[in-house]
Amino acid sequence: MIGLRWALIGLGVLGVIAGVVPLVLGLSAPEVNDAELVTVFGPLVGWSFIGTGLFAWYRRPDNRFGALMTAVGFTWCLSGLTVDTTSGVFLIGLLFSSLPFALLFHMLCAFPSGRLEGRFGRAIVALGYFITTVLYWTILLFYDTTRDEWPDNPIQVFEDQSAADALLNLQSVLAIVAILGVPVVLWRQWKRASPAQHAVLAPVYGIAAVLMVMLVASLVADFGVMSNDLESAIDIAGLICLVLVPFAFLAGLARNRLSSAGAIGELVASLSEREGRRRSLRDALADALGDPGLTLAYWLPDREHYVNAEGEQMDLPGPGTGRVTTIVEHAGEPVAAIVYAASLADERELVDAVGAAATLTLENERLDAELRAKVAELRDQRSRSLGAALNERRRLERNLHDGAQQRLVSMALNLRLARARLDDPDKAAELLESAAGELDAAIAELRELARGIHPAVLSDRGLDAALEALALRSPVPVELEERVGERLPEPVELAAYFVVAEALTNVAKYASASRATVRAVRDNGHVIVEVADDGVGGADPSKGSGLRGLADRLCAVDGRLEVEDARGGGTLVRADIPCG
Amino acid sequence: MATRVLIVDDHPSFRASARMLLEAEGYDVVGEAEDGRSGLAAARDLRPDVVLLDIQLPDIDGFQVAGELTANGQRSAVVLVSSRAREDLCGRVESSGARGFIPKSELSGAALEALIS
What we know:
The complex is a heterodimer of chains A (580) and B (117). Chain A is of the alpha+beta class and 580 residues long. Chain A is 64% helix and 11% strand. A 5-stranded antiparallel sheet of chain A has the order 3-2-1-5-4, with helices on one face. Chain A has a 5-stranded mixed sheet with strand order 6-7-8-10-9, covered by helices on one side. In chain A, a hairpin with a 2-residue loop joins strand 4 and strand 5. The two termini of chain A are 56 Å apart. In chain A, 37% of the residues are buried. Chain B is of the alpha/beta class and 117 residues long. Chain B has one domain: 3-Layer(aba) Sandwich (Rossmann fold). Chain B is 40% helix and 22% strand. Chain B has helices spanning 12-24, 36-46, 62-71, 92-96, 109-116, and strands spanning 4-8, 28-33, 50-54, 77-82, 100-103. Chain B has a 5-stranded parallel sheet, with helices on both faces. In chain B, helix 2 (36-46) runs parallel beside helix 3 (62-71).
């Protein structure tokens, strides 16, 4: 910033000198055409553009607008060198005599962001540069400057005045097209701008509109359709408009500051209203920034994501969405994000000021949103728990119906058949053997079902023994790497057991793993249970009801479930359960 | 001539026991099906005298299968079976078009005969 400051001071000194040159040259050569105009308007236009441009450049170094305005001032001063009779100096003035207008069009079309928006705007500016450089310098190869009571043209190589006139007419027509295109670009930008931006745009666009009319009139006058006096009056009026452009920019800036201060004042007053009379914070901020579509997102540090006022998770808009975001912080921590129209991106200072004024209210609303998010989560969790319980009952009914009940039915039929075949002892024995087989299978299925409801080994011998039993029953080889080594509260043991049971079931069903490891350790008042496998990975707790049910079961004991791809492949399921 | 029976049930152990029991009591078990759709197809092809139909099937509800069989004008008598108790069926047996209901554990030739005669 300090380097930029000195560079701008240097440019300022150069600007003062650049403005003095046409003044001195104009005074020393009054006989040259346009000497009076150059003497008066050379320094006036040059200094006003250079001074205001450097100020804008300093305030917004990343905005090209200041540099463009400064460039208009310098090239304007250079164009004043046409009043010098020295061949080289005159040539420099001649070469630069049209360029300030292209830079002026560029500056107006890019106001206030410094960027050209849309193809049409870029086309108009490109046309301006073409006319004032390529076309104009081509004309100079044919142009006899003595016709306009100027010194000899040092780069005239052709004597064909008709060609020069044809090219001049072409230049005038194209210039009129470019000049008429500028208001179209400005109108499009005006429609896109927010009310707050209108305050900045209005003075510049107003004077630009008058200036464009004067420039068109001046070009039409070149076709000889006006008296000399009228033509001179139009030229002078155009130059006065040109001098006023930088001051219109300053006026816009001042109005913006006033309207910004007013907007912030209204916002503060609105936020100070009593409860009940106060409008919503969103509405108040939308009014202050002039963006009816403004939205607020509140930061939840525990969950590390944003939510809306209802506590629902929301993503901040990315590039190309037409919306931009300003993060409001309090004590170095994010509180909320203000999401507003991209057209306000250049009102960053206003948005920051509005955010600062509303920080405490935003913090209050953030707490409300956090509470709503927790209520919504609890509601979801309760709903899922009820659904899981219902599903569990259905599963039990189905398992009983399809398993043990069917075997007992078959057994009853076989026993009845055996009774009817007592006259055939061999057949009766065969039927009784079949009935006994069905009974054994029914007992085994009932035992498995009972274990799924509440494993007896867990109640009798604790978590370590229950995990050993799970490891033994798993079809995939399981190594029990670490054990807790002590009894834990029953709800904790039960939650830890079901984490391992569900995880090992998933390993067997989906992981295509060759082995799995189980760890259960007590650490600083928590039980950490981990099940890792060397399978294909890619488990997603949000998709399977099993893992989601486990997460809900863990929530009931204030525990947390994490599922991630393990290092070296496979899946790692990790549960953290507080156990006092 | 023996009464021809088609058994429609998704549990193989019940189908095997029922076949053995009914054949021991003189019935001719002409076919088995494990779900509602294949039961409907088998009834159409085999034209049995009795369709012994489980209520809880994996694809179509047994009541619905009974309704389709009777609506198509087939001469087969439909007898519903289930491991559920009769009182759990809430009178749906009567409205399904079936001849009656036998709890699976009480299945016998006599119980079947009582319904179809």
